[in-house]
Amino acid sequence: MEKSSRREFVKNSTKMAIGAGLVSMMPLASSCSSNDKIVVGAIGLRNQGFANLRSFLKNPNIECAALCDIDDEILNRRAVDVEKINEKRIEGGEKLTITKPKLYKDYRKLLENPDIDAVIIGTPDHWHCLQLIHACEAGKHSFVEKPMANSIEEALIMERAAKRYNTVITVGQWQRSGQHWHDAVNFVKSGELGKISRIKAWSYTSKQILPVVEDSEVPAGVDYDMWLGPAPKRPFNKNRFHYNFRYFWDYAGGLMADWGVHMLDFALFGMEAGRPKTITALGGKFAYDDARQTPDTMNVLYEYDDFAISWEHSVCLGNGSYGLGHGVVFQGNNGAVLVTRGGWQVIPEKERKDGKIVPKMMEKAWTKGSGSLDEHVVNFFDVIRNGGKTNCTVEMGKNVAMVTHMGNIAHRTGEKLIWDDVSNTFTNSAKANALLKPEYSNSWKLPLI
What we know:
By secondary structure, this protein is α/β, with parallel strands linked by helices. It is 31% helix and 21% strand. It has twelve helices and 18 strands.
């Protein structure tokens, strides 16, 4: 297929993405038979962004034309990594037209590259909104990391942008493409658990203390101004930089917005739930007197009409409920469904019958699951080529991003909050409403859509 017609095909295919039905859980190779090449660029490469790109490049007819990062050391290292991946693909018989990606320090220049069809947005959370909208405006399909947004207002803006622009977007909540997660939710929805009154989600990450360090000079090769972007201007400090940015309010929402997005997503999915009526939180720096701003220990309770969802996290401990570091459990009158990235099971409640203690329902032994990032990526490409909805739409990403940020806002205000889903505001707290919308800095402007 000629370059111009290929790009026209890939762009026009997005017109088919409106009004499609439910997701299809397809095997990894099912959508990779197309000969229509998709050219990708990756923005943010240190950690999950590059994990996403590696998954992209497992698929035939996917080629990487561009890499972007504000850190030269990471950018150059990933360029070598991509070239090595491509060498192995060629050795395996693939015929690639792009083997050496172009390198950028400014993502806006990457988006100007007319060869690129789709981008990975793997930057810190405070960049997701701007970069997704700019990618939409440039006509690029987007695989945006979770949490989709770093604030409630950004989530609403991104949803409006997704409706305005005719591009395919998926959010990196890749459990949405995991078969065993869907099997667990289907059991939850079967009614066999009886009345479900409580859903609990948690993450315990067993991290070490983050010692306070002095501000320092910006490392050589780092465009720190671009890294800060819309965040407040501050001196460079290595604690606020690579990886640990997630523990500072300027850039992210702590463990709640990191793992909470994954786990609470399935709590909401299983209950077909939107935003809660009330939110209550408690927690703080209970374990470590260290450099982190976000709470190392936190519990949040979300009230719905006839059930409650709770979130629990600890940065410093590794054993959570059921002795597991993460998970979601749906608790009904007859039993519970427990699901993690490793698998799922049904745990029956007990009752006394004829003088004996017996289970209320059939126990289901642990069914092993598997990682689902590769399936999530395949679904993204399938929708670009064939239309439909991605397994994690912007609406899904928005919903759980809003819920996690509500928990953080309840913690930061110390108030029980009441949410109005019509006005998208809290009805009882000016302090909480002041945290709905970020204040962009350094000449960057919050998009008006």
